[in-house]
Amino acid sequence: MSFDRFERAIDSFLEREERRKDREAFKIRQYVFDERTVRNMLSLFNKGIISDFNWIISMGKEAAVLSGRGKQGEIAIKVYKYVSSFRRHLDYMVGDRRFPSSPRKIIEMWAKKEYRNLVRMKKADVRVPEPYGVSGNVLVMQLIGSDGIPAPHLREVELEDPESVLKMILDDVKKAYHKARLVHADLSEYNILYWRSLPWMIDLSHAVVVDHPMAGELLRRDIQNIVRFFQRRYGIAPGDYVAGDLDKDTEGEDRSSSGEIGLD
After folding, report:
1. What is the average pLDDT score of the chain?
2. H or E, element range at 54
3. Final residue of a domain: which of 149, 178, 208?
4. Disulfide engineering: 205 pairs with which of 114, 169, 210, 255, CB 3.0-4.6 Å?
């Protein structure tokens, strides 16, 4: 498909977005579908990773997510905006030699970072979306949901068995740390989806390697965020599990060095 034809497809897509006002449609065209982004999407389209896109399912300051279809089935297309400010993310880049100094290149490397983090998490058997491809500032992954609609966030559902769900989340935190050697670094009820009776971690762009100087602090914060949510919503206080088991890998082997993983 040519660039001009793909741009016409985007214009047609925006015309279908009748729920959005003209001003919003202009912002989407300007900040999401700029020329560089369109070329990156076209690259993924020509590889067959994207075959169609339906509508925007979320719109944030730094990225927009569209639902669509590809050769793997239903997909989520995450577009990092080139106009975003990534200044507040610098703490997550300290000590990571993968990042250049150019703002444009940083945004593209941020997308690649999330792709690689998803790959590592998936190999470690952590429940995250399957990554399908990345080009520039555009990341394509499995849609956690169906019919173009994403699954609800953890905060939006009432769990029948919250204890087991909490344990599944903490088990995934353990697998991410010990097997993928990653810390999510921004984990909360806002970036866990609940689909098919299982919790799924999303938004892996902030994840850091365990050798990161802030990894211990970020891991502790992740655990605190999740435990406090379950305490507040369901009255669960799994102190023994958090303080003891998170210092061991998923096979029960003790891998703690200083006991810093548990809650204070």
Report:
1. 82
2. strand 52-59
3. 149
4. 114
